[in-house]
């Protein structure tokens, strides 16, 4: 893999209804979510690929079964950060106040673990196995500019300073620049690999616990807004202009997963 360590390399939607999610994200984003579990998924797990119109994979969908839901799993999105040594990363994260939700283990696609930062925001770490015949494969689920990719990674947290230091220490991120949100605090930008990848913001009213929110690129923010409303989603923040002239909005998908969208206004 040629992505630099600390990159977002994959995104996963956990959902109670993968077929319903397929209809929603197909209408809003243009993705195709497979109708059946991937043949390489571990036994008994319903895991489906999210495919862009260009044939590339945008991420995966994990169908929550009854046992997962009984154990507390709920619909939501999680990101995967690349590390070349998952076990060492787990040890360092736990020594720094993080927690482990899923111990390091091997899958056919690589070694992974689910962890949380010291404030409790969960994410995966992974050392993937490149596809056969493609040792230099670049994971492109994240793109700064392209529709049908995740374009922005936003952390809402109870301790922004501590969280920024944590991700700088373990994943090599930078933090330069901020936008003043008045009484709501600072919206502090994150950099990695030469790109601005997202931001850290204080935990706000209505967000019960520290969490990552991911913004999917769309071709037209107003078309996407209409598709959200027409396909069972709930708009939580209407489209608002962001630096650079594009627009971002927030929504809840029909199964209850929070998600953001970003793109131009064409109307």
TrEMBL record:
| Secretion signal, residue range per the UniProt entry | none
SUPFAM superfamilies (UniProt xref)? Glyoxalase/Bleomycin resistance protein/Dihydroxybiphenyl dioxygenase
Q: Which GO terms describe its molecular function?
A: dioxygenase activity
Q: What is the native source organism of this protein?
A: Sphingopyxis alaskensis (strain DSM 13593 / LMG 18877 / RB2256) (Sphingomonas alaskensis)
Which Pfam families does its entry note?
Glyoxalase
CDD domains, per the entry: SgaA_N_like
The residues covered by the VOC domain are 7-128, 149-264
Keywords assigned by UniProt, alphabetized: Dioxygenase, Oxidoreductase
Which superkingdom does the taxonomy of this entry point to?
Bacteria
Q: PANTHER family annotated for this entry? A: GB|AAF24581.1, GLYOXALASE-RELATED
Q: Which Gene3D superfamilies match?
A: 2,3-Dihydroxybiphenyl 1,2-Dioxygenase, domain 1
UniProt key word Oxidoreductase: yes
Q: What is this protein called?
A: Glyoxalase/bleomycin resistance protein/dioxygenase
The reply to whether Oxidoreductase figures as a keyword in the UniProt entry is yes
